[in-house]
């Protein structure tokens, strides 16, 4: 009889650890790529990764324990891709940190004023998803460039990703990440090894605000975080019969984003993919016990936070472009789903294509990046064409 509770505990523990490892290994490189792109030094990027890992871990533990449902928080992976696409803004890294603070404030305002969340939800899905696809496009080209520039280091990760995408899709990106780390470790052993800190350290930054950082980073990052993470996160849990405590979740993620911003963290939000790992019947047959999986995933993130600085040290010592290629692999699935959603509605396809093209262009106008202008262009085109759009002809029966 005693073996049943023990086996149950082991199953819960393994499910929680797996959920956390899949999320961390699938997207940590994307976060680092985004933070470096907007001006963070290796130490500041490591601090930012540490901040969002701790914030999502603590928030997951708090919400799952309090409500006894498998609420899982995550960093904003599409948001990190947005940072990578936008690049440095006027004011540099301090201005980027200021933008992160604004995002946290907007998330808190969403908790206090639900109408703001409704306004974000009112943005046509085709436009929001096309903007995200355009933002992701350049980063998803990185595996191609990586294969050309460093085939010995990138090819094993690509082959691993392709094979497991067929055999075990959940593990495709984490396994590619692990293979890339092994390849980098072998390369470093032949070139003197890594040179840098290994223990986690917080690097605080005094924030500044510029119009460019608010419009180029804060507004698109908030929209992407809400539309591509928080709303799907609610839908995923609802599909398994759970009701997300919306206001409290926005409060926790808003406070976590604000607190983490000073250390370089960009944003945290409700998880979607990781939440599905914790909320599905595979996690535990009893829906009332699945919150323990989320809780253990939160604690696992707190342990993984100890590895963030060592990860940055290894990645920084590797040849340029290798881990960016892995980040691109991690985002290919998101790009595919974003393109599918952007083009799903025939009446909105032209507006979605314009949005995608502007976002993918990487243009800067008046110091403001492409993500903001892509939303503006897409909404203008949609407002112009939508009243005259003809409905699609019905499909023939049979």
What do these coordinates show?
A hairpin with a 2-residue loop joins strand 3 and strand 4. This protein has helices at 3-37, 42-67, 77-86, 92-112, 114-122, 125-140, 142-149, 151-167, 172-190, 211-239, 246-261, 273-279, 291-304, 308-317, 322-342, 349-361, 370-385; strands spanning 73-75, 268-270, 364-365, 368-369. It is an all-alpha fold and 398 residues long. A two-stranded antiparallel ribbon has the order 1-2. The chain has a two-stranded antiparallel sheet with strand order 3-4.
Average per-residue pLDDT, rounded, comes to 87
Q: What is the share of helical residues?
A: over 70%
Q: Give the biggest beta sheet.
A: 2 strands, antiparallel
Order of helices and strands: HHEHHHHHHHHHEHHHHHEEH
Distance between the termini: 57 Å
Task: Report the C-alpha radius of gyration, rounded.
Answer: 21 Å
The chain-level structural class is mainly alpha
Residue fraction in strands = under 5%
Keywords:
398 residues, mainly alpha, two-stranded antiparallel ribbon, 17 helices, 72% helix, 3% strand, globular
């Amino acid at each position: 009889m005693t073996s049943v509770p023990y086996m149950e505990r082991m199953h819960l523990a393994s499910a929680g650890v797996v959920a956390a490892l899949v999320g961390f290994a699938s997207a940590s490189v994307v976060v680092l790529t985004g933070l470096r792109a907007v001006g963070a030094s290796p130490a500041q990027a490591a601090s930012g990764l540490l901040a969002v890992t701790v914030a999502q871990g603590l928030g997951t533990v708090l919400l799952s324990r309090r409500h006894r449902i498998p609420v899982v928080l995550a960093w904003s992976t599409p948001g990190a891709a947005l940072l990578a696409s936008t690049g440095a803004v006027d004011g540099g890294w301090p201005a980027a940190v200021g933008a992160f603070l604004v995002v946290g404030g907007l998330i808190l305002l969403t908790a206090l004023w639900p109408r703001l969340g409704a306004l974000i939800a009112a943005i046509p899905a085709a436009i929001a998803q096309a903007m995200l696809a355009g933002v992701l496009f350049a980063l998803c080209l990185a595996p191609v460039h990586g294969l050309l520039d460093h085939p010995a280091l990138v090819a094993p990760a690509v082959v691993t990703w392709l094979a497991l995408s067929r055999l075990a899709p959940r593990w495709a990106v984490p396994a590619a990440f692990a293979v890339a780390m092994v390849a980098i470790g072998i390369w470093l052993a032949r070139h003197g090894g890594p040179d840098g800190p290994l223990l986690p350290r917080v690097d605080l930054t005094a924030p500044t605000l510029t119009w460019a950082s608010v419009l180029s980073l804060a507004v698109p990052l908030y929209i992407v975080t809400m539309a591509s993470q928080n709303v799907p996160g609610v839908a995923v849990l609802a599909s398994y019969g759970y009701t997300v405590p919306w206001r409290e979740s926005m409060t926790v993620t808003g406070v976590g984003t604000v607190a983490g911003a000073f250390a370089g963290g960009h944003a945290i939000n409700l998880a979607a993919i990781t939440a599905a790992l914790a909320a599905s019947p595979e996690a535990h047959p009893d829906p009332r016990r699945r919150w323990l999986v989320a809780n253990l995933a939160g604690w696992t993130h707190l342990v993984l936070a100890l590895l963030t600085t060592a990860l940055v040290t290894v990645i920084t010592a590797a040849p340029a472009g290798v881990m960016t290629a892995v980040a691109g692999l991690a985002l290919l699935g998101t790009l595919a789903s974003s393109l599918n959603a952007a083009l799903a509605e025939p009446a909105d396809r032209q507006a979605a294509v314009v949005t995608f093209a502007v976002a993918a262009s990487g243009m800067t106008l008046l110091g403001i990046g492409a993500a903001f202008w892509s939303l503006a262009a897409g909404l203008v085109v949609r407002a112009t064409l939508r009243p005259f759009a003809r409905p699609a002809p019905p499909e023939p029966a049979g």
